[in-house]
Amino acid sequence: MFIKLLPKNNSPVWNLYMYNLFLGCALTIVSSFTFMDKLMLRMNIDLELLGTIKGVMFLLPAIIYQFIAVLLGKSQKEVQICAVSYFLRVLLPGLLPFLALMTDDRKILTWWTIILLPAGMMFAVIANNTLMTIYRKVIPAEKYNYSIGMINMFFALATYLLGLPFAWVLDKMEHLSNFHFFLAFGISQLVTLAFEFPAIFCLLRVKVPRTVLQGTEKINMLAPYRDKKIRMVLLINILHRFVNGFMGAYITVYFIEVARFSMTTLLSITIALGMILTVTMPGAGKAMDRWGYGRFFIVLSGAMLLGATLFGLCWKSLLVLPVFALLCWDCNTNPAGGWMNVGEYSASSKLTSQKNLKATVAAYSICFNGGLSAGLLMGSALYTFAGCFGAADLSARLHTYFLLTLPFFGVLFGASLYFNKLLADSEKNIKEA
Hints:
Helix content is about 80%, strand content about 0%. It has 18 helices and no strands. The longest helix has about 40 residues. The N terminus is likely disordered.
């Protein structure tokens, strides 16, 4: 029955499904903070730089892309650009374990990490945006949402299938020498890179219709920031990305170095959270429609604040872990954080006027990437500051670090309260008018 729902294998949509299946396999390791954090820990990268490296990884591509977006849009070679960019996105970070085999110099490895991870992310940004253009040109409008859902399912399925086996293999190599661990890590990345070849084959079969380039459309890029409601959505998005960056910078370090979780266990939790998020997404959409964005944001930001507070107060308690995972975790891949992501994106597009839609989408993208990068960079500074309290070991220092993040969760909750009041006042004024 399920097979009958899929398009015929000679259709462009079918090839996009298969492309995302193979692409998900290729990105299994390089797109996972669990794997890449483990690699950087084994390379002995300074923990104080961990957030900075991740911050640069998101910041530089976001800035550079603004200068090349117009040129990419005019080329009309979307398939070729996407194929090459995703290949380089996998290849460049995949060089790190092989560099670690050649030298154990900490400074050299740190600099190569700062160079290769942002370079890989740069090509990821180019490929992601180009792929979205392909989707819009190829997928029929009447089946667009359904097809995008199927594409996301195929992509996630690949990660679920390959992530755990690779984590299990690397866990088995944990107690061996650095040489054997880096060799196993490098070979694993070569295996995933091989999936790029069938992926490219499927993508090249997609025929993208050429479009007639029109004159440059004038867009008021400042319009979203002048609208009170959109401005608050963007602020909430930035604050959300702050706490996402704080948690994402060191949450893997905590579970691997302090809680002593294996990569297999940690990845299993991440996959379970992703599956819960995917399954419950329709229910979250209904709640959004029923409650409105304001109350929806209050509930979710309050849930993340509660989860972070329990984590800080009940340090090392495994009993709190399920609640913490569902409510907070990295504030992105868990149910509460993931639902809020969708709410922010939906609110930014729905609450704006049609003429300002493009400007609002651009503003949302800048706030998303800029906020996440700032959160990661601030995470490094906060971790350094936590060391000023005389923490005796890594556990105590991380405990202080996560406690220091709590005020930012509080600010996010406060912004959600204000946004709800703003929407309520706006509705009241409309009724009175």
